[in-house]
Amino acid sequence: MPLGRRGGRVSALRGEGEEEAPPAAAAAPWASPQQPEAGVEQVLLRGIFEIGRSSCDVVLSLRALRWRPILPERPAGDSKCDLSCKEEFIELKDIFSVKLKRRHFANEQGNGTLLGITLFICLKKEQNKLKDSTLDLINLSEDHCDIWFRQFKKILAGFSNRPKTLKILLNPQSHKKEATQVYYEKVEPLLKIAGIKTDVTITEYEGHALSLLKECELQEFDGVVCVGGDGSASEVAHALLLRAQKSAGTEADSILTPVRAQLPLGVIPAGSTNVLAHSLHGIAHVVTATLHIIMGHVQPVDVCTFSTAGRLLRFGFSAMFGFGGRTLALAEKHRWMSPNQRRDFAVIKALAKLKPEDCEISFLPLNSSPDLQGRRAQGSPKSDSDARWHMIQGQFLNVSIMAIPCLCSVAPGGLAPNTRLNNGSMALIIARNTSRPEFIKHLKRYASVKNQFNFPFIEMHTVEEVKVDPRNKVSAHNPEEEDQPHETASETSFPWNVDGDLMEVTSEVHVKKYIATWDI
After folding, report:
1. Three-class SS of residue 413?
2. Which of 498, 421, 424 is CA-nearest to residue 462?
3. In a 10 Å sphere around its CB, with 0-12 CB exposed, 13-18 middle and 19+ buried, how is residue 110 labelled?
């Protein structure tokens, strides 16, 4: 990595080796596309440090740290000198920790020999990735380093949006039971470097996070972090929002407009699909998600309520009914398989027994009129929206209701590519009854660059609310008795896939979207 004329030494965290420096003409890995104006910034400190193998003139201002190699005098107009003296910089907002760098020998007493200061930096890489790196400022003077160290600590303390304490909920059963290893090997070391205190709870059963978050004290925490898959993240999200309604004195079954959750939720992807993390950050990458949490990056996200007969079932971000719900119900009955095997088995089995659901679907199209939104927010009469409801009936293979894009490895463009995280709308995607080969073509296109919705049996609507009411009141799916005759099918419940969690409902489900209800 280029640091001065003779190169630099930027070591990655977690013990990676030093990198050989490329020619000095290359751009520094942490340099922003547009360099902050140096001339108008107040200079806080100026001194000499060795960066890489070059002595550098280092300037600390309110916004950036800049350095330029100090070189012997050369003849005027020497172009090589101009090139090698190119100034480099990092913006202070990209620094997440600072520590004194010391050398320790075996059996040595005390703090060891001071070498300088190490800055821990968040780098932006390609494909939405973030990477942690370090910059060493070498100077053997205790007094000199102490002044700079204190100034860096003061600057970092000014980033008040960054968390100081976090509640961690870890699901050890996620994916291939790798969540524990992911946390302790990749997440915890970065949190420790950033000086973030943590309280870790390893969940022991389904619903553990929900019951825990109903009762535990959260005042001392700046956020809650879920380490797991979509089901775990959905459970924690639901629990935090329920807690917020209770704290506000709102009855869960009479929610008109949900109260915002008091704490932001961080999501560390450790599941098999990681739809929520992928949609939030554009990539399901553990280090990227961790650095977003450390840096205090917050994304407002819309939230949906799922209710039946006026009773709140849960909060969530996306749902599938029909094929999507039956596939998840099948997968849940075969948890002894590996995640990929379980998913593939469930998809194949559901396709083999592909049957439509006889439904009535009602939806309220999105209307972005400020006047209408204002009246609705103030509790406008029901008749204001009654005339706008649309209703369709028929045989449907699948109904998807997405409040987020739902990006994942099997659908890189997203299950609902036109949906945004906080635009106040949901995508209603309806697959009418068709032949099995045509439906399979539709599914395959999610993984390709072709338009997965360019089929005559696919309907798309941008909506605010949706009601799905099965008309036959008999589910065409019974995961308990897959090979039994249709007559033995359950007469009481229909499977829904809500954020990767199985929800079984006996009657109409009402889904409603609320704008920017949460920060994640």
Report:
1. coil
2. 424
3. exposed
Residue 423 has a CB neighbour count (10 Å cut-off) of: 16
* Contacts of residue 84, Cβ cutoff 8 Å, sequence gap at least 6: 4, 5, 24, 69, 71
**397, burial (CB in 10 Å: exposed 0-12, middle 13-18, buried 19+):** buried
pLDDT of residue 72: 79
Q: How far is CA 140 from CA 204, 225, 295, 508, in A?
A: 50, 39, 30, 71
Say whether 505 sits in a helix, a strand or coil: strand
Q: Give the strand pairing for 458-470 and 426-432.
A: antiparallel
Residue identified by tokens 């869960």 is 252
- CB-CB contact of 417 with 282 (8 Å): no
Structure tokens at 462: 């941008």
- Two structure tokens written together for 21: 């420096």
By residue count, the chain amounts to 520
Residue 456 burial (CB count, 10 A): 8
Q: Which two tokens stand for residue 505?
A: 């409902």
Q: For residues 228 and 271, is the Cβ–Cβ distance under 8 A?
A: yes
Coil, strand, or helix at residue 169?
strand
Neighbours of 247 (CB within 10 A): 12
Q: Are the C-beta atoms of residues 268 and 187 closer than 8 Å to each other?
A: yes
| pLDDT tens-digit map of 107-158 | 777 788 999 999 999 999 988 999 999 999 999 999 999 999 999 999 999 9
Strand partners, 361: 392, 468
- Closest by Cα among 235, 237, 231, 169 to 203: 169
435 near 443, Cβ under 8 Å? no
Name the pairing type of β-strands 426-432 and 390-402: antiparallel
CA 440 to chain centre: 29
- Give one DSSP letter per residue of 29-93, joined into a string: TT--SSPPPSTTSPEEEEEEEEETTEEEEEEEESSEEEEEE------TT-HHHHHHT--EEEEGG
Spans in the chain with pLDDT lower than 70:
1-40, 74-84, 251-256, 368-386, 473-492, 516-518
Handedness of CA 467, 473, 479, 482 (dihedral sign): negative
